[in-house]
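Lab channel / #folding
Pinned by the channel admin:
"Please post every new chain as: sequence first, then the structure tokens as a reply. Keep commentary short and put observations after the output so the thread stays searchable."

First post following the new format, from NK:
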Amino acid sequence: MGYGQYTDEELLQGLKQSKKGAYNEIYSRYWKKMLIVALNHNEDSYIAKDIVQEVFIDLWEKRHSYEVQSLPAFLATAVKFQVFKYYRKEQRRALLAKENYVFDDLYEEEEKLHARFLKDMIDGIVEEMPEKCRLVFHYSRNLGLKNEEIAEQAGITKKTVENTLNRALRIIRGKLKNHGIPLLTIVQVLFLRK
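Reply from TO:
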């Protein structure tokens, strides 16, 4: 039986065991879908292809260290991280190149862009979380419910809500830090930009 019949979970197991066939199947199954994600954020097809290529190279090189719950959500988030890094690099270049540019305007635009991409990335990370974690985070951050209200809605204790929220925030902080996002930026997006 070829790898085409494997589920995503089986392919991920094969990937962890360094099976090239499993990796190739992930690549052929998700390449086009991830290119569409990249093109949604950058219309230059050459850049979008490079970004997706980087994500798949990274997937192979770090196959033993990644913990993946949902392959499509993980890959889409990774693509958004790469787009974010590309834009950040390009904007720094533009800042150096345009000496007459008004710094405040560029800084403001960069801040807006960072906030938008970080929100996308966090949404992708949340999608990968276990269901209870995802639900509690949604109630808290998107609906603005208090811990008591979340406990009532979800049928769990207030303490469980607190523990689950802390776990969700730890996951998000860890994943963003792994991609070189500074802690201050993470705090701003999670707590100041609801």
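NK: Confidence is low (pLDDT under 50) at residues 99-104.
TO: also worth noting, The chain has nine helices and no strands.
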